[in-house]
Amino acid sequence: MKSGKKHLYELPVNDISTLGTYAEQLQREAEARGLTLPPSARLQIGEPSFRTPEHIRLAAQQSIEQELMTYGPAAGWPWLRELLAQKIQRVNGYQVESQHVAIGMGGTGVLQATFTATVGSGDEVLIPNPCWPFYPMQLATCGATAVPYPLDPASEWYPDIAQLERLVTERTRMLVINTPGNPTGAVFPRAVIAELLDFARRHDLYLLSDECYDQIIFEGEHCSPATLLEPDEFENGRFIGIYTFSKSYAMTGWRIGYVVTGAPLIKTITQVLSAEFTNLATMVQRAAAAALTGPQACVIEMREAYRHRRDRTVSLLKEYDRYIYSPHGAFYALVNVESRNGEKRQGRQFALDLLHAHNVAVAPGSGFGSVTDPYVRISLAASDEEIERGVRAICEFADR
Ligand SMILES: Cc1ncc(COP(=O)(O)O)c(C=O)c1O
User: The CATH number of the domain where 334 resides is what?
Assistant: First the structure.
């Protein structure tokens, strides 16, 4: 049998999408048998419940009508890269030029291109535990080894430098950080970012900072490590920033994100982008440009809706005595579903049982790393009603 590369074939299947598909299947089967399930709550995926704002959709329509859909430059059209450099200054607080930016297929696409451009077989990359499940998958496709470093809910899910020091070896090439974090919702303060940057300098590592939720902050400030760099350090590629339109502008399906780093590294990443897909569709780039130049009220409105849902979630968890921490950004919350008598409970089995019993889908914590085995992750991007129904069902089911 030819089944492709063994280490990729044997990677664990992404639980979040399989659980969503399974939930749909159960719903269809029940309908076919004339059964009525309890009203559903789909809290498993980080998909904004909002439509992409109208002015962004219109810009894409106009582009289709008025422009030739030709090939384009692999790093993106110059007019978009220029606008992105301005956005970095306006939102992220550091100065770059268009040659420091390249666009790709979502945060996912630019991450994959960046890993391919920087690490390979024999290299180790420090990634958070828990983390967005695509980091280990993507590193596996490059042949690099993911080395998870634990985050601890008792310290607001911040990384511990002493732990990182224990895990670093002469093969370590990169430290990946993610703030605001998925699945934790942690927002690292400036002092933590400074320590992480010093660690990367001490061991001469790339510091890859996934800032895909940079505009979804409820408390505190988003601090990019790039704001703490010397200009020559930036140009030399110490820092790599990852960004996306998916979350702040409700554009998940449009597939556009961007990477920001020194010009020489952008050149290497662009080679990979070019080899992977040549260029993104011009209409998508026009939509992204409209997002950047149009009214920003939509970003604030969506963020405030997520904040409201975060607040409701926190108060429900307090009501059921399952509260541990408050997410300060992104749109997720981790809920510990261990039973009261201390008996260990696997988040994965819990998620399946919950789906069968209450038609509520959540992401099993094990999909994000071993630290979150006894947790499930809920997405605050779901509707208010789903959150209310879903969180109550989770807490009652955990207490059964
Ligand atoms: C931490 C993190 N990074 C990157 C991404 C990728 O985002 P995109 O939809 O732009 O590919 C996600 C998506 O959920 C994420 O949570």
Answer: 3.90.1150.10
